[in-house]
Structures are given as structure tokens and as C-alpha cells.
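Sample entry (288 residues):
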Amino acid sequence: MYGITAVIYADISVLKIVLRVTKNFSSYSMYILRMVDLLFRALPTSSRQLVQFRANRLGRDIAVGDIHGCFSALQTALQAIDFDPIRDRLFSVGDLVDRGPESHRVLEWLDKPWFHAVCGNHEQMVFCTASGNPLPDVDHMKHGGDWLLTLTARERGVIAERLAALPVAIEVETHQGPVGLVHAGYPFEDWHDIRNFHMTESAIDCCLWSRDRHVRRSEQPVANVRALIHGHTTIDRVERLGNVIFIDTGGWRRAPGHFTLLDLHTLHPIAPQSSGRMLQETQAVAMN
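Predicted structure, serialized as C-alpha cells:
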């Protein structure tokens, strides 16, 4: 049942694109797709451990590091690489909110048919805070959560519900094999484990919070996945450890922080096309 759910949900954006391209995207079609979209967004969190996407045959699949409420800066970076919302898809490694000035725009971005995200530790903090059960060992307000105080209780609840529905992991098919996205760490040695086993609380904590691989500088590859993309750990430039790539280069920070936009098919950061500003790294991270 879950596999069918994931495939249908992942193909909604493709169907919208096809309808737009063929100019048959009537208001009735939009209504039907919206209802299907909302249905699958409303699934319990426990069933959204992994969402799988088929290969994008129309354009590029791109991963971006932690956004932290800096959506205008992200939009500028996307414009610089000539991002096409009709053909391209953008995958976030989580931490959409907190710290930056535009966290309140998160629902606007989650409603975009070409934008998909995994859950990060800041999404977990927002859900817990908005639910009246803040994490006991983390002061969310000191980590950028004070924007929630500007919202009504209803607004906080709507945002928290949407963030809680984000999957722990995303898998994107490419011509050279699947690429995974998980926010912080990965608790298994094999990518198939996240497909086949229900995750424990400690395993989910690893996915949302762990920096163990980066701290240990472990080169041990994750089996049965072409590459695994992480954010969470802010670094100056893209780093590769085994087949794991860290891409949070601080786009939410002041310069020299910048958004790395990684092409999931080539595994190269994309250089700007329509702007001379270096909004992300241009060196290749080849992983063939």
C-alpha cells in the first residue's frame, strides 16, 4: 500500500506539468489534482518514511541545502541557474524554517508542485513547539523559532501539520541509479533498509540530528544507492565522504554563505547561467 501511495504522490507534479504543456489544464483538472494532492499530503507521518520519485524526463532534478527561511535568496539563486518550474524539480534536504526572515512563507513553497522536501530537525522543533510539547533539551527560541510567536495559534497549527507530514527520506531515480536525500545522518549501512524496515525513534533522530559521519570523516559508502545527500552540517564548500555528499553551504547566512544547487543527475553543483554572481559552488563533485 505504501509503495503505491508514494508513486502516485510523486507523480502528481509530473501530471500537472503534462497538463500544462498540452494546454489542457482546466480548472476542473486543477481541482481534481488538488484534491488528490491534499489526500496524499494528509497521510500519517508514520507512512511517510520514504517518498520515491521517478526520473525527471523533462528537465533537471536539483537538490538544495538548508533554507532556514531565506526563500527570496533561494529564488535569486534559482533564477541564476535558469530554473524552469515547468520542467525542473527542486528537492530540499530539510530545515526550511527558523533563523531567516521568511519562515512564514514555508507553506507557499510547499504548495509549489515542483518543490519537495524531507523533514529536518527544525521542522521537528516547530511541530513540537506549536503542539505545546517543546523538545526538553533544545531551546527552540534561541535557534530561530521566535517567528512562531508572531503567528496565531491556528496559523502555527496549520504550519506544524504540514511540516509533520514531510518524509524522513526522499529517493530520486536517475539514469545512473537512485539518489537519496536525508537531512542529517543515516542510521543504516544499506539504502534498502529505509525501504524495507519501519524506523525506530532512534533511527529517526539520527536522520534529523546526527553529525556522526561528518565528525568521524567516515568514508564508508551506503550500499545500494548512487549517492546520499545531506544538509544540517554547515560547511564552506561541498564535501564528499564515500558516496555521501554534504551540501549545506550556508545560503541562509551572510556572505560567503551561499546556496549550493546540486544537479542530481550529474552530481555537480550548477554554475550560474543568467548572473555573474557566484551563488553556489562551481567545482564538480564527480561520483561516477
